[in-house]
Amino acid sequence: MKKTNRIKFAGLSDGIPDMPRRMSSREMLTDQVFLYLQIGSQILFLFAGVIGYIWHGVLGAIALALVGYVVGRLLRRSMGIRGTNSTEGFFVRMRERANGSRRGFLEWSLERLRRTHFTEVKCKAICDVYDDAMRKRRNSCDPSAQREILKNMDKRIKEISYD
């Protein structure tokens, strides 16, 4: 019998190291919705381009691909996704939220569905942990110490996010 290594999507928190608690079914559902919206926002221009090509040929493909790209960018912005690097984008968004920036509509909807909110206090705490870890990492020359600093930062941020 052949063994396969499959990712278990039903228990996302089971595969995430250093979680302070198990994720609720509502949190897992919200994470899946967020993932689908994120993927959809990135490939929307492709689908729109194909539909535009079928509808009006090359000009339709170009026009609808452009519309799909703009709508995808607006979706990403509304979900709070910043930049191309999701890790740095998360901390950019946390800094914006800590400074009083309003939530986008989809960001608000996902937080409401999840029933946990990133308040200004939480966002400031996350930014403080990130800033402290980056300062320690810059001052450290040992790669294993740098990995440990990042691991501790990740664990602390999960504790703040999932309190």
Layout of secondary structure:
Layout: H1 25-78, H2 86-98, H3 105-114, H4 120-139, H5 143-161
Helix pairs in contact: 1-3, 2-4, 4-5
What features would you describe in this structure?
With 163 residues, the chain is mainly α. It has 2 domains: 23-90 and 101-118, no CATH class; 119-163. Helix content is 71%, strand content 0%. The chain has helices spanning 25-78, 86-98, 105-114, 120-139, 143-161. The longest helix has 54 residues, at 25-78. The radius of gyration is 19 Å and the shape is elongated. It starts with 24 loop residues before the first helix and ends with a helix. Residues 1-12 have low confidence and may be disordered.
Taking the sheet with the most strands, its summary is:
none
Number of helices: 5
Oligomeric status: single chain
Q: What pattern of helices and strands is seen along the backbone?
A: HHHHH
> How many strand segments?
0
State the domain count: 2
- Percentage beta strand: under 5%
Q: Judging from the principal axes of the Cα atoms, what is the shape?
A: elongated
* Structural class category: mainly alpha
- The end-to-end distance, rounded to whole angstroms, is 43 Å
Proportion in helices: over 70%
Nearest-integer average pLDDT: 86
Poorly predicted parts: 1-12
Q: Give the radius of gyration.
A: 19 Å
